[in-house]
Amino acid sequence: MHFLSLSIAPNELTVTKKDDSQNIAEKKQFTFNDFNLATTPQLLVKEIQTSFTDFEGAIFQEIPANFYALNTKVSLLNGSLEQFIKLFSELLNCPILTMQEAKNATDLSTAFSKKAQEITWTLDYFGYTPGKEEYSVESLLTIGNGFMGLRGTLPEMKISNDSYPATYIAGLYNTAESTVAGQIVENEDFVNTPNSQYISIKVEGNKNWLCINTSSLQQLHRRLNLKTGLFSSEMIIEDEQKNQLKISAYKIVNMKKMNNYSLKYIIEPLNFSKKITLKTEADGSVYNFNVERYRNLTNKHFHITNKQADKDLVALEVKTNESNITVRQSSKIHGDFFTKDEINTQIFEDKIEQTVAFMGTQNKQYSIEKHVQVQASIAEKSWDTPSQMALSFNEEFAESKAAWQELWDSSDIQVSGDMMSQKLLRIHTYHLLVSASPFNNTELDVSITARGLHGEAYRGHIFWDEIFILPFYIMHFPETAKQLLMYRYNRLNKAKENALESHYEGAMFPWQSGLDGSEDTQKLHLNPLNGEWGEDHSVLQRHVSLAIAYNVWLYWNNANDETFIKEYGAEMLLEIANFWRSAATYDESTKRYFIDKVMGPDEFHEAYPNSTESGLKNNAYTNLMVVWLFEEIETVLALLNTQEQTELMKKTGITQEKINEMKKIRQGLTIEVDKEGIIAQYEGYFKLKEIDWAAAKEKYGNIYRMDRILKADGKSPDDYKVSKQADTLMLFYNLNKEKIDEILNDLGYELPPDYLEKNLMYYLERTSHGSTLSRIVHAQLAENVAFHDLSWNLYQEALYSDYRDIQGGTTAEGIHTGVMAATIYVTLTTYAGVDIKEQLLTITPNLPKIWTDMTFNLNHKGIHYQLTMTKKNLNIIASKDVHVMIKEQTYSLKAAEPTTINY
């Protein structure tokens, strides 16, 4: 076993490679000037990786005091030893110990292994950088339980440009009018509800309550334990009078009891003994402030309807201004330094304050607990009978921790040989379970927002991102997947109204959905590069209905839930198919059908060059998915007996003539294909101009949002072959290539055998990856055509996209649930090689070079599987007798009996 010893000096890093007997194998020095936390570690790590290989971990020596004096860009607050260890550990992708941890270890190899495990289950932040970076940290430290989400702020924080505490409730929306570009527009927003998390203190002699931004922050460490859902913080802070305090805070949202969250707050005077006053609030003055570009819009979405206080108990009730949803927050405080009779309560116009004064003694700890019960009238069952209010933080935590363990037992993916991929997969799994949970979503009529219960981007709406999100639940928690699909079924009538309003038949689901399924897509969009508002035509992304149909099919195909398909799914599929039937037009000149007035998943292209009308014709993704849907309609109808079919036709108003018309359309829809086998993104795409990508990168650096760059330059992305994300290629994410070959053949198109490789490279060269989802879709496609290095690089970019906020501030507005779910899906379907779209569970292991083995669970057709795979064999346990397909061979499994298959 070899390890590295890292010793940093003011202008150099010394790296020594040693064996477990402390013998030196190699030693090198790497120099730098004025250490910069944002760039210097990356440069040093590149040099280390070039010079050293084959090491199990590292030990970081103490940082000398003169390091900070001679490196002006690093402070002790944001550049502590712990922060250095975190940065170098993540970049080297190995565990790093402190000198003390190494001295305490009886065996370094065991210590490295234990440290690596800790790293993969925790999210740590050291120091504090107010503004967008802090907002991003708060998104990633969010805790929740599917019903509510609390951003990862400190108790002392209030809404400002520096930090943003928020409490979100699933499905809580309100519509308000705002004046934009001289006209009144309506926007439905995801509502930030009252803040009952606030706790702060004031030491005798100070005028102001302790605030992280106005006091001298000496040290801050925040940690989120992914395994237990526990948020903790520890800070040392000095107030205006030089009083130093150590303040520790702990926060949980109870995963088992949907209405409850709890805080524990511990105060320790470090250099004084004085009177201290503690204050906690139920603050109804809060408003929506998370997304900078929305801040000029109406941002107060509720009014207070009731305030009550009685010693240790407080209740604040509010109602949204337009949607008339009531939210009630009740709380109770208790501590070890006061009785409830010593609590002073004041009721103000927009908040309730509770204060406690006590004599603080130096080096003594004082603890208070606050337990909050959150209810919303849209969750009727828990509105009438809420969870019992908590009495003890430790008891709540123990209950929640056990619930989290149940979820991890079903959903954890374990990989060996790659510490950071392991960590990021757990971060992504954690945030999905915060966004929707099997414990609490059963009574909710909600789906998962594009940014979870973590932020206000996209106004907390539901998008086609469900096509990336739902497979996670379909494979691990099918009952939750069904509940999420019921959100769409419950809005089927609204989708039919939407279709009629646009002169179509059937069900046309909205591009952006919120409370009732109305189309909530904004009509104007702000370009942050030039500050101008322009028309937004994204409502034309009708393919959201195809995403819903695909998820209905995938759930039914994987869960074998015939009751669902007969009672709900078949109706949804038929109504969506009827919409697309009505959207198709027969062209006498070509003797084929076409679909126009749509936008594809790309999003950059809204219209043809110089056209006065928005919308495109024969988008390949849309048309080929419509053909797929029409084919599946026949399969679904075959499941129903004659009476069931008759009732369904009567309910939907769809006749046999319309079914026959779908068959004609599926055999005659148009796509455009060139002589090389490139499928045009839409009709006329090949006539667009090319972009000089090298020049664009040199001029702008970050070209992810090439659409905004072009518009700021007075140009239009409609004129260019530039894509935000996978469009035509998205077909191969949804469907197996064999299925697409079949569809193309049925349509009468012949493409060369290597058309997938050609299309991948063609569109990859013209894609800016303006969506984080773009990378993960392309990662899967690249692996499908054996471009292994390209696949791995794109996969890693997607894994890190939120954690490193690669889009420069978007994580501040909430995590990206779509890409988090998609990375898990691609891990299982592309690298583990699991295919859940076939009748038999099909597995073709394809582990990345860096991974030695992989362990995970999944559900398929009512059978639970436990799998561990290496590059040589697969160990599999099924809960029932079943046949599976592994590496194109069929194997018979006995219930609960481990089977090892060598390959």
TrEMBL record:
One of its GO terms (molecular function) is hydrolase activity, hydrolyzing O-glycosyl compounds. Pfam families: Glyco_hydro_65C (PF03633), Glyco_hydro_65m (PF03632), Glyco_hydro_65N (PF03636). Residues 837-892 form the Glycoside hydrolase family 65 C-terminal domain. InterPro entries: 6-hairpin_glycosidase_sf (IPR008928), 6hp_glycosidase-like_sf (IPR012341), Gal_mutarotase_sf_dom (IPR011013), GH65_N (IPR037018), Glyco_hydro_65_C (IPR005194), Glyco_hydro_65_M (IPR005195), Glyco_hydro_65_N (IPR005196). Keywords: Hydrolase. One of its GO terms (biological process) is carbohydrate metabolic process. Residues 426-824 form the Glycoside hydrolase family 65 central catalytic domain. It comes from the Bacteria. Residues 132-375 form the Glycoside hydrolase family 65 N-terminal domain. The keyword Hydrolase applies. Transmembrane segments: none annotated. This is Glycosyl hydrolase.
